[in-house]
Amino acid sequence: MPIIDFRIRPPYKGFLNTTMYVKAERRDGITSSIQLEPSPAAQQKSVPMMLAEMDLAGIDIGVVVGRNSGALGSVDNNTVKEFCDSHQGRFIPVASVDPSDRKQAALDIDMAISTGFRAVNIEPGGSSPPLHTDDRRLYPIYAHCEDRNVPLIIMTGGNAGPDLSYTSPDRLDRVLGDFPDLRIASAHGNWPWVDQILHVAFRRQNLYLSPDYFLSNMPGSDDFLKAADSWLADRFLYASAFPFAPIKGYLDWFRSLPIRPKNMDRILYQNAIEFLGLTNSTTTFRTAPFEARP
Amino acid sequence: MPIIDFRIRPPYKGFLNTTMYVKAERRDGITSSIQLEPSPAAQQKSVPMMLAEMDLAGIDIGVVVGRNSGALGSVDNNTVKEFCDSHQGRFIPVASVDPSDRKQAALDIDMAISTGFRAVNIEPGGSSPPLHTDDRRLYPIYAHCEDRNVPLIIMTGGNAGPDLSYTSPDRLDRVLGDFPDLRIASAHGNWPWVDQILHVAFRRQNLYLSPDYFLSNMPGSDDFLKAADSWLADRFLYASAFPFAPIKGYLDWFRSLPIRPKNMDRILYQNAIEFLGLTNSTTTFRTAPFEARP
Amino acid sequence: MPIIDFRIRPPYKGFLNTTMYVKAERRDGITSSIQLEPSPAAQQKSVPMMLAEMDLAGIDIGVVVGRNSGALGSVDNNTVKEFCDSHQGRFIPVASVDPSDRKQAALDIDMAISTGFRAVNIEPGGSSPPLHTDDRRLYPIYAHCEDRNVPLIIMTGGNAGPDLSYTSPDRLDRVLGDFPDLRIASAHGNWPWVDQILHVAFRRQNLYLSPDYFLSNMPGSDDFLKAADSWLADRFLYASAFPFAPIKGYLDWFRSLPIRPKNMDRILYQNAIEFLGLTNSTTTFRTAPFEARP
After folding, report:
1. Which residues of A touch C220 (CB under 8 A)?
2. Domain limits for position C219
3. Residue B294 within a domain
4. In this predicted model, what pLDDT tens digit does every residue of B159-197 receive, in sequence order?
5. N or C: which end of chain B has fewer CB within 10 A?
6. d(Cα C25, Cα A268) in Å, to the nearest integer?
7. Could you give the number of structural domains in chain C?
8. Touching A: which chains, 3+ CB pairs < 8 A?
9. What interface predicted TM-score (ipTM) does this complex get?
10. What does pTM read for this prediction?
C-alpha cells in the first residue's frame, strides 16, 4: 500500500521564514522531547535531503500545508503550489487562508480550489486577534467550505493559540454539529484534550484526527491508539508534521505501534484519500482536477 | 450475590418510539464500536427475549429508566410503571420528569414517589432549550429531591446535549456541593471527563458513577476501573444501558475486568440498593414502599 | 544525593488549627484512599515523631508551607519561621499571603523575603471570595513576585476551591504566559487535569509540577510519571504533602516508581533547589541569604 504523510512543510522559500525553521533550536528541543532524532534534512534546510528521506522511508505522497498565521509566520499559497508542481505526483497542496478576513478568505478558497489545491487550512488561534474555533467570525468560512465540499484542516491542538482554551474540544464539537457535511481534520488532534476529542470523534462522523507528533511519548497516546485501532480506524490520519518529527524516524516508530495491519493501511493512506475527496488510485489523483465526493 | 442492572430500557410500548429503537442501525453501530455483539432481543424488539437474556445472564433486577427528553424522545411514566408492575420483582421503576418545568416536575416527583417509583431521572441536555446541569432553573428540582430524600439520576455523559459542555464535570461538582444530601447518579459517568469526574467523586460523597457502555473499549476506562476497585468501590453502579449494550454480553465482559470479588459484589448489587435507599433484602424491597434512608 | 520533601506541614502551633489536623478522620480517610498508611506522627500530632520519621526516611530537608486561606484555615508566617529556625538546616520556610489583598500581600512578600523565607505561597481558591488563578486581582501579586525573582507556589490542584474550575489548566496557562519570568510551582499539580497541565508544562518552561499525594493510586498518574521520567524531569518536584501522606511511606512508594535514577535524583532534590533559586550545596543554602538566580 502507498503511504501519505498528511503534514509536511518543506525547507523551501517562505517556509524558511516561519518559526519552525527560524527557531531551529526550539524545534529540535521538541523533537528530542518526543524521543525522536531531528531530521538532518530539517537541520540543513535541504529539499533534496527531505526528498531522499521520503524515498528511504517509502512515503509516496506528502500533503504540503502552508500557514497564514500572525504568530507563527505565513507562507504564500503560490509558494506551496509552486513547490508541489515542481515535484509532480509527490505532493498535494493545501491552501491557507486568513481566518480573520471572511471576504478575502472566500476569494482565496475559490481561487485555490480552481487552481488545484485539495483542501484549505486555517489556524484561527494564531490570528490577530486570536480566534477560538467556534468564533462566529469563522462561520462564514465554514459555510463556504461546506457548501463547496472543500475539506478543512484546522490547527487546533498543541500550541494552537495564546492559551489552552484555543484547543477546546467543546468548541470544535459545536462547529462539527453546526456543519455536519463539512469534513474537518484536526491537526495535532486537539491534544491535550485526548479523551474529550475522542468523544467528539465518536459522535461526529465528519471529524478526522491527526495528532501527529503529539502522539509520541505524550500523555494520552494510549487512548489515541486504542481508538485508531478500532472505531476511529477510518478517520485517523497519519502525519509527521515535519520538520518537528523526522519523516523516516517518525514512520519507523509509527509502524511499531500496536495497530493491526488492516487499520494501519487505512491510516497510512486511505483515510487521507477519503478526507481529501480523491479517488482511490494514486495515478489518477496526481493529475485529476479537484472533484467533489459523490 | 444477586445482580442489579442499573439501566435497562425494554422494547415496550413508548420505548419503541425513542431513538434507541427507532434508529436501530445507529445503535447497533455503537454496540459494535464498543466491541460487543448487539442483543437479538434489542434487534427483534422482544420483551420475552430480553427477559430470557436476563435469566441467562443471572440478572435478578433491572432498573427501568424512562426518558423525558425532546431530543431523544420520551416515555410516559405510566408505561414504565406498567411494565415494572407486570413483571413483579424483576424491575425497579424510575420516573422521568421534564427538567424545564419546575412546577410540573415537583408534582410529577411527588406522584411518582407515592406510587412506587424509586428514583427520579432527568436529562437536562436533551431539553428544549438544552440546560446545563448547574442551570439555575434546575435548582428547585434539586432542592425538591434533596428535601424528600429522593435519589436523582442525571444523564450527563456521552451525547448528553448539543455539545460537549453538557457533560461538564465542573458544573456537576457545583450541584453536588450545593446539595450535599442529594444522592446523584451520573448516567454515562460524565464520560469523556474521566479524570475530572473521578476527582469530583473523590471529593463529593453524594456522587455515584455509572459509566455503563462508555466503559467498554473507550478512552479513560482504565482510570474508571482502578477507582472502581479501590476508593470508589461503594459508589460505582453496574449498568448495561440496554439496548446499547447486550444484557448478557456486557455482564460477561464486565465480570472479566480486574475488580476484586468483594468490590465486584458491591458494584453488581449493593451500591444500587444503597443509592436507591432500599433495604438489603431483595425479597423485602420488591414489595416494601419507598422509605427514606435513616 | 540529599532529598527535599517540597511540602510538609508539621503538627506545630497554628498548623494544629487547620483542617488537616482538626479533621483527622477525613485526612486519614484520604490517606487510606491513596493506599498508604497514615503517619503516627500525624495522628499523634508529634513533632519529634515527625522528625524521627524524616530521619528514618532519609529526608534531609522539608519545605514548610503555611496557609492563608479562609476555607482551609491559616498559619501565621511567624509560626512557620519560628519552626524552621528552631530546627536549623532541616527546613525551608515558605511565606503565605492573603491573595485577596494586594497591598498587604506586597508588604508581606517583601518582609518575608527579607527575613529568610525562600518562596511565597498563595491559595486563591480558598479566599473569600474564592479567586481563580487568572483573576485580575492576583496580577499585581504575580508582577510583584516576578519583578523580585520570588518563586511562587500556587495551590491549584485537588480541592483548591469551591468547584473544579479552580484547578483549571487554561487559567494557569494564561498566567504563565503573562509572567514568563515568574517560576510557579503548582501544588497538587492541577490534578485532575493531568493531560492538560502536562501540555502547559511542555509549553511553559516556568511551570514546575508537584502532584504530591494525588500521584498515588489516582487517575492520570501514569501520564505524570512518563513525563517525570522524560521531558519534565527537571521540573517535577517531590512532595509528600504531609500529613496527608506519611513522610516515609510516601517516599518508599515513590522510589519504587519507574523513574530512572538520574531523573529520580533530580526530582528528589535538584529541582527544588533550582525552583527556590538556591545554590547546589545544602551546607551553603542552609545559611545563605536569599539570592536571585543569575
Report:
1. 219
2. 4-287
3. no
4. 999 999 999 999 999 999 999 999 999 999 999 999 999
5. C
6. 55
7. 1
8. B, C
9. 0.92
10. 0.94
